[in-house]
C-alpha cells in the first residue's frame, strides 16, 4: 500500500459518522416532502410472485414531453400552477427508459415498436410481428417469418386476452396483439394485394377470436369489419370486399356494441366486440356523450377479463395522443393524455397490484419541446409569460423573441404549425411568426409554433418512459431496449 493511499484511508476513517451542522431549511415543505418520499421508497419491496394478470397501457406517441404537458395541463385544470401535479402513472413505484429504435429505423413507427412489446424482439419499420428474415410488404413474410406473440403464449396458459384502443382496432398498436402482417396498412382486404398469402389484419382478428386468443376488442375502425355497401349503427360505411366480420363474430357468440350505452350494457361474461366509428374514435376533446370514454372501455374490459380465474393480458391504448401530435395540436394531445391518465387511475382502483403487473409506456415519442424560461402557472398550451422576480407565479409580461413577438410554451421541431408557411397557408415558405393573443393561443384548435414545414409532424427517436407496479415490475429499471418489456411480462406470468 502506498503512503498516499494509507493517508487517505486513515483520513476517511476519522470522519464523523453524522454531520452535526444545523440545517437551516429542515422545516421547509420542500425538505419535509422529500424526506417523506425517501421514507415511502424505503418501504417498497420487490414483488417476486407469479403475475396472474398483465395490463399493458400504451399511449401512442406519448413522449416524456407530452406526458409532462399532460401533467401541467391536469394540474392547472385542478387549480394549481401545474408543475407539482402527479399523474396516476407517475405514482407507480418503478420507472425505466425504453429505447425505441427499430432494426432499421433510428426513428420508429408504431408497428415494430408494438411488435417489440408483444414478441420480445426488434423488427423493421412498417411490419407487425414479422422477423427481419421476412421482407416488408411481402405477402409471403407472415407465413415464413411470423413471430409468436405474448397473447399466444398466455392463451396457452389459459388466460384471456383483451384489446382496447381509441385508434382503429386494426391500427399498428392493437394489431400487434393478434396479427402478423408484412405491411401495417393491410388493415382490411380492400388494402391487401390480390392473391396475397397473408390475410388482412381485421380478418386475422377473427381468426384469433376463433383460436381463443382474443376474447374482447373495443375500439375504432368499423370500416375494416363491415362489407362495402353496409353502414353500421353509427352510419359508418364498411369497405370490405369479402365478408361481414361483425356478423361472423356475432354468430359465434360475440356481443357487438357500437356506442356507450350498448357497451356499458354488455354481458361481461361473454366476448365483446365494440366498434365506435368508421376510422379512429373521436379525440377526447370532440367526443360526443354517446361514445364511450377510454375510462368506460377500460372498466368494461377489466370486468370482462376478471371473469377468467386463470387471469388475463389486457392491452389498453390511448391511440390518439399520437395523432394530435402529428397535427401539431398540443391541446388535443394533452386532452387525450388526460383521458389516458384517467383510464389508468380507474384500472388501479379495480386491480390488485399484488397479482397484476401494470405497465404504462409509449411506443415512441414526438418532437415536442418546452423552452423559453416561462414563469410558473403559464398556461401550458398558450403563450409563455416571463418568470416573476419574486413570488411563485409568472409575471404578466410575455417572454419575447428577438423579433419582439411572444412565443408558445411548447413547440414542435416540424409539422403543420410551421412558422415558414406563408400568408393564409400559402406554400411559399415566406412565413413569419404569428402573433396570437393568449386567448387564441390557448384555443383547442391552435397549432403550436413549429419549424420545418411538414404536412404531419414526425415521431421522435428519443427514449420513452416505462412506469410499472406489481409482480417483477422492479425489473423495469434502467435504460433498456423496448423489447425487454416483453421479457418482464413473460417472466412475471411464468415465474414458478
Ligand atoms: Zn404516429
UniProtKB/TrEMBL annotation:
Residues that coordinate or bind Zn(2+): 60, 322, 326, 363-364, 459
SUPFAM superfamilies, per the entry: Alkaline phosphatase-like (SSF53649)
InterPro entries per the UniProt record, alphabetical: Alkaline_phosphatase (IPR001952), Alkaline_phosphatase_core_sf (IPR017850)
GO MF annotations, alphabetized: alkaline phosphatase activity; metal ion binding
Cofactor detail note: Binds 1 Mg(2+) ion. Binds 2 Zn(2+) ions.
Active-site residues annotated for this sequence: 110
Signal peptide per UniProt: 1-19
Residues noted as binding Mg(2+) in the record, renumbered to the chain: 60, 171, 173, 317
Alphabetical keyword list: Magnesium, Metal-binding, Phosphoprotein, Signal, Zinc
UniProt cofactor(s): Mg(2+); Zn(2+)
Family: Belongs to the alkaline phosphatase family.
Name by which UniProt lists this protein: Alkaline phosphatase
Lineage, opening ranks: Bacteria, Pseudomonadati, Pseudomonadota, Alphaproteobacteria, Rhodobacterales
